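Incident log, entry 3
Record: Nucleic-acid-binding Zn-ribbon protein (81 residues)
Problem: checksum mismatch between cached and fresh output.
Input:
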Amino acid sequence: MSIKDIIEDRFVCVKCKGRICDIREVSMTGAGLSKMFDIQHIHYLFVSCKHCGNVEVFNPDILEGKKKDQLGTILDIFFGS
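Fresh output:
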């Protein structure tokens, strides 16, 4: 079961208690060279309630229990993740 599936199954909006959500993955650049070369290696999940529109942001690396180190980040930039 993927992280997105787990979020959809367990989702309860903190504002309206709605149970239906929309999940979008967003990629962003960091600072320094990744910004200069537009390398988008930072990923977040934006989860929005379909009833009231409230949005929560989650870091999928933390949810999956991954700890990114400098070497891993550099390798992800050059070889993709």
